[in-house]
Design a protein that fits this description.
twelve-stranded mixed sheet; alpha/beta; 14 strands; 44% helix
């Protein structure tokens, strides 16, 4: 298998068009659930996260998908899983179709990184791209499958340079529209953060929420341990099963908010692999939210291919859960996130009644900074609290809280900051004067290397080969910019 040397990702060039496109997006699921929410006590929404990084491991350091590297080097480490992974990337087309034929009403949300979407087209894996095309564009599949947006290169938001958050968001939208069309992109309304890593630094979080709303997203999936009540307490048990409003407040006092669904519990793929969300939902009832009574929703996400449970146990567990709903649990349903949220309007929900929450540690920060805070006082408060040694951190929170994405990775983070600064120095002013510059090859290639350097894998897998990959991408990016 060889990489196509001239096959480059579609990650830029249509920024204004896609912004307008997303502003014109309409409701997708006004009444698609057979029962409707009025008859349901509860529901569950499951998402599958899929990712393979891009690495400079092809001939002469060419950029190729790590999936291609696995298939070409099956005797290294866990690379024998390459083909089973590829099967996982396409198998929902068969599973969903099979269950519909049986009279079930399955649902699934899909979260594929831009790296992976580019990689499978780069490899000419038509078995995967055609399955995804069917899941995305077939008229019947639209009722059952929802795509979630994400960052193009699986960057972790808290340690990504703030100006690059919007670039990551936009690049994924470009990639998705190039593969599946503009109409398919208009249906993408929810967003999934890589590693579920929610920033808690006020300015990073504010920029993230701002950029998501600007890009046309309506809601965000967040990990329950990454958020808190406005008084600093943990979310109430039942609060995890209704929509919440995430409030982001910048250091200068500006506020913005976005609707969020809460991913419960930890990252264990057994939760989705064995369809525990279905079991949990069956035990829940309706809840009062303001003047509306709404079904509880259990939201969950897991890697769609990683580990024996997801590779081997998930398909049969998915079948059994959907058959159980069909035969024994008519008051519980599988729903997708946007489907659930859009139909809450029909129950008379006043969106101002949603509980307000914030990122973890922000209550302590705002207490220390005081009401009349500004950029300097917030920075001083962060410095004081961080030096106390009692667990305060502005590194964000995710399902990998045992792993620091910052500590010990200066050899990746400092080049990332330098490349980002050089990129914006080179292009920002010129783009204001000549927006069509984003259609040029030099801009695209420089942007590609910047986004790739921010891929989480270059830190997740520790020092060694992966940090050397990062250094190769940095050096090539700098050569392009200089």
């Amino acid at each position: 298998m060889t990489v196509q040397p001239e096959h480059h990702p579609a990650i830029c060039g249509r920024e204004r068009q896609l912004r307008t496109l997303m502003e014109q997006s309409k409701r997708n699921w006004p009444s698609s659930t057979a029962q409707g929410l009025k008859q349901l006590k509860s529901a569950f929404a499951c998402a599958l996260h899929m990712h393979q990084p891009t690495v400079p491991a092809g001939p002469d350091g060419a950029l190729i998908s790590h999936l291609q590297y696995m298939l070409e080097h099956p005797d290294e480490g866990d690379n024998h899983n390459g083909e089973p992974f590829a099967h996982c990337y396409r198998r929902m087309a068969d599973l969903i179709t099979e269950l519909i034929r049986e009279g079930c009403s399955p649902r699934i949300m899909l979260d594929y990184s831009g790296n992976l979407l580019w990689g499978v087209t780069q490899m000419q894996r038509l078995d995967i791209t055609e399955a995804l095309q069917f899941l995305t564009c077939d008229d019947e599949m639209k009722r059952h499958v929802e795509w979630l947006g994400t960052f193009w290169s699986h960057a972790v938001a808290p340690s990504t340079p703030i100006p690059d958050l919007s670039l990551q968001i936009s690049a994924w939208q470009h990639q998705f529209a190039d593969l599946f069309g503009d109409a398919a992109l208009q249906r993408v309304r929810g967003f999934s953060l890589p590693e579920m890593h929610l920033p808690n630094h006020p300015d990073t979080l504010f920029a993230l929420v701002h950029d998501l709303l600007e890009a046309g997203y309506h809601w965000l999936l967040v990990q329950e341990h990454s958020v808190e009540q406005l008084d600093g307490s943990a979310l109430a048990d039942l609060q995890r099963f209704i929509p919440n409003k995430l409030v982001a407040r910048s250091s200068s006092g500006e506020q913005i908010s976005i609707t969020v669904l809460i991913k419960t519990q930890g990252s264990d793929t057994k939760l989705v692999g064995q369809m525990q969300p279905c079991e949990q939902a069956i035990g829940l009832g309706r809840q009062q939210l303001g003047n509306a009574e709404i079904p509880s929703l259990v939201s969950q996400i897991a890697d769609g291919e990683n580990g024996g449970v997801m590779m081997n146990e998930f398909p049969e567990a998915f079948r059994q859960a959907n058959r159980r709903l069909r035969d024994d649990s008519p008051q519980t349903s599988a729903l997708n996130g946007s489907e659930y949220l859009e139909q809450l309007d029909e129950l008379g929900l006043n969106w101002n009644d949603l509980p307000c929450i914030q990122a973890v540690q922000q209550h302590r920060l705002w207490q220390r900074a005081g009401d009349a805070c500004d950029v300097d006082s917030v920075a001083a408060a962060i410095a004081e609290l961080s030096s106390a040694g009692d667990g305060f951190s502005m590194e964000g929170a995710s399902w990998t809280n045992n792993l620091s994405w910052v500590e010990g990775y200066d050899n990746v983070l400092e080049p990332m900051q330098r490349l980002s600064a050089r990129f914006h120095q080179r292009f920002d002013q010129r783009l204001c004067e000549q927006p069509s510059l984003s259609e040029s090859r030099i801009y695209r290639d420089a942007l590609m290397h910047l986004l790739l350097l921010e891929t989480s894998c270059f830190r997740y897998w520790g020092q060694g080969q992966w940090t050397r990959y990062a250094n190769d991408i940095y050096e090539k990016g700098m050569r392009l910019l200089n």
